[in-house]
Amino acid sequence: MRSQLATLRRIMSIYGVLEELRSADLLRATTAVHEVQQAIGGEENAACSARTEGRLALGEGDRVGWTASEAGHLAAGVRRERLEPIRQERLELNEAAREQYLQSRLKREQMQRLIVRAEEQMSVEEGRKAQAESDDRFLARRWATGPRR
Fold this sequence. Notes:
Number of helices: 2
Number of strands: 0
Largest sheet: none
Distance between the termini: 43 Å
Order of helices and strands: HH
Helix content: over 70%
């Protein structure tokens, strides 16, 4: 039973390492999603800034400034549209990494419960064995001294 328990503990350590790897994968995937979202946010800010500059240029009667800001606004919109498929792809990868992490964590927790049950069973068996040995010693002494009346 002890060798089985040692084997279970070794397997448990493998599941623990696997969980750590999956956790690192999830962290990388989440970071990749945040990077793209920040880039999209930057492009949205650039577009908003270009719009504001265009309004100011119109207010001053600067037709060239307005045209330049309009071009900046359009360019930021195009860059944002190009980033959107990347964001979607990274979101999907992030979801897959999250599922793998949750599965590895579940497997590790199941293995932990199995080890706890095995330890409890071993403890009960050792207690029974100790009680049986104690009973045998008691009966052996009783036989050695003869029955009491």
